[in-house]
Amino acid sequence: xxxxxxxxxxxxxxxLKLQHLDEAELREDGVDGxxxxxxxxxxxxxxxxxxxxxxxxxxxEYDAGNDRLSMRFPDGREVSAAVERGEEVQTNFHKRPRTGxxxxxPWADALSELGGAPVxxxxxxxxxxxxxxxxxxxxxxxxxxxxxxAQLGVDDVDRRRFRMNFGIEGLEPHEEDTWLRQKVQVGDxxxxxxxxxxxxxxxxxxxxxAVSDLDTLKALAAYRGSLETTEPLAFGVHAAVATPGRVRxxxxxxxx
Length: 256
Fold this sequence. Notes:
Structural class: mainly beta
Distance between the termini: 17 Å
Largest sheet: 8 strands, mixed
Number of helices: 3
Shape: globular
Helix content: 10-25%
Radius of gyration: 18 Å
Number of strands: 18
Strand content: 35-45%
C-alpha cells in the first residue's frame, strides 16, 4: 500500500480544539493558519493544556481576510470580534524568549473565566510551533496509534490526543522515525524531519472531556522508553519545510 495523507489538522489558537481539513497550504512556518495565536499567563509564560485542560474544548475560527477571530465555548457561548493589535510583548515560549503582539478583545476574558486564571492572547510574527522552523510540521503514522493502543490494551487511541498536523497511513508502526534528516514528499510539499516529538501529560487527556483517562506516558515508557530519540517518550516526528506546497488528504507520501 502506498503511504498517503490520512488526516490534516491545525488550530488557529494554540491549545484550543483542533480543526480537521481536507487540504491545506504548508508554508515554511507550518500549516497555513495553524497556531496563528497563542496564550500566555500574567508573567508572559506560554499557557498549554497542561495548565488548562478545558481549553481544548474551545473551538476557534480565524477569518484572515476579514481579520476576525471567533471562539465557541463548551456551554455554546460564542465570542467573536475583529482583531485589535496592541503593544509588543516579550513572552516565555517553552523557556525561550519570543516576541509577539498583544491582542485586545473579548477572548482573553472569556478564556480567563473558563480557566479560572488570567490569560492573554498573543499574535507572533510566525506560526507558534513548539520547535520553530525545524518543527514547522508534525507527522505520525496511523499504525503508530495502533501500536500504542496494543500496549494500552485498547482498540482505538484518539489521534487528537497527540495534536499532529499530518497522519500518514500505509506505513509500519513508527516508520516515520526512520525519516530523520532526509527529504520526504508530502503532497506538493517537501519536508525534512529533524527530530522526534517528546510527549507530556496532555496526551493522557480525553479531547472530548479534558479528563486524563488514558496512561499514554506509561505506555510509551514501557515500549519506547529505552530507544535513542531526540526527545524522551517520543511519538511522531517534527519537520522543517524544504519546499512549501499544497497537501490534500489522500496525497502520496514518500521519502526522496
